[in-house]
Design brief:
It comes from Colletotrichum shisoi. By secondary structure, this protein is an alpha+beta fold. The protein is built from 12 helices and 10 strands. The chain folds into 3 domains: 73 residues, no CATH class; 54 residues, no CATH class; 101 residues.
Length: 325
């Protein structure tokens, strides 16, 4: 709880270099674990929030604290409750939001060009279906996707923005629905070794096979920024073969794993390496908020959890944005 207000729900109170960045937050997580003798907690932390991280053991403690932070810890300890949709389908939340927004959203479209200044913004948008274009003029622009240089193609970022965004590191995550006769029903598998607390997989790896019902399993494959879909799909099959070779599941026979659905989550868990954190990268990141009539939200600006991002928006982003309208 010591650093909670520095990390959640936003970095608004994160110390700058002059104020002094706490050493604990820039320690590799494995060193932090040893320093405070919390080895027994590592498998659970990894299982719950560490699967999408780039090199979890060597990740700066700041990012582990942010994802498995005070809110999740309180929930695990039974101090606070948690909730899910009655249907158990998280997508219901976003479907309801989509209905609320109605036709005010241009789905399946791409930003072709922007012009941003302190006086407002212009955004030229192209629809993928018919290539038609729409020019949007607004007082402010709110960017909510992961701000990698690739994703920002079409947006007129300047040198100051580039100097921050070019320093990102991230992992790439693929999710799929798979089935195979050797995967038993009512069982799920996570890539951890409970008896060896500090034994963690190295990139790339399959994080888990989660039973969904019938013959279906959800699978997560994680790699570095260059990890591609072909490699991820191949790794899923190899991981199932490893489970069979270890006797965890029955032999596979001649049947290959069936991939019924597949999705690219893209860049996940954007973060700065230790040297940039120590040089004040967080303060430089947040200094971009409001420049050229542009604000940012999303996982790169807080924890990559919807409820925490709602609080980021409510407590930080929206008050600043609305105050300037």
């Amino acid at each position: 709880l010591t650093y909670e207000e520095n990390l959640l729900p936003s970095y608004a109170k994160f110390p700058n270099v002059t104020e002094g960045i706490p050493k604990d937050l820039t320690l590799p997580f494995i060193d932090f674990v040893k320093k405070y003798a919390i080895e027994a907690a590592v498998p659970r932390i990894f299982q719950v929030t560490g699967l999408g991280m780039d090199d979890f053991a060597r990740q700066s403690t700041l990012y582990v604290m942010q994802t498995f932070g005070a809110p999740i810890t309180r929930s695990f300890l039974g101090i606070v409750g948690s909730f899910v949709p009655v249907s158990k389908r998280n997508s219901d939340i976003y479907d309801a939001i989509a209905r609320r927004l109605g036709e005010d959203v241009m789905y399946f479209s791409t930003t072709v060009q922007t012009a941003r200044s302190d006086n407002g913004v212009e955004v030229l948008v192209e629809r993928s279906a018919d290539k038609s274009r729409t020019l949007i003029r607004a007082k402010k622009l709110l960017v909510s996707f992961e701000p990698t240089l690739h994703n920002l193609d079409g947006i007129d970022i300047d040198e100051e923005e580039t100097s921050v965004f070019e320093k990102w590191s991230w992992s790439t995550v693929y999710a799929g629905i798979v089935s195979h006769p050797s995967l038993p029903r009512l069982a799920s598998y996570t890539n951890t070794a409970p008896a060896r607390w500090m034994s963690l997989p190295e990139l790339p790896f399959v994080g888990r096979f989660d039973y969904l019902g019938d013959e279906n399993y959800r699978v997560l494959a994680i790699g570095d920024r260059n990890f591609n879909s072909r490699e991820a799909r191949k790794l899923v099959g190899e991981s199932l073969e490893q489970l069979a070779a270890a006797g965890t599941v029955p032999g596979l026979g001649n049947g290959a794993v069936q991939i019924k659905a597949w999705a690219d989550h893209g860049a996940m868990q954007l973060h700065f390496e230790r040297e940039y954190l120590e040089a004040g990268a967080i303060a430089k990141l947040y200094a971009l908020q409001g420049r050229r009539s542009t604000y940012f939200t999303g996982g790169a600006w807080s924890a990559q959890f919807t409820t925490i991002l709602w609080e980021t928006n409510n407590q930080y982003v929206l008050p600043k944005l609305l105050a300037e309208l």
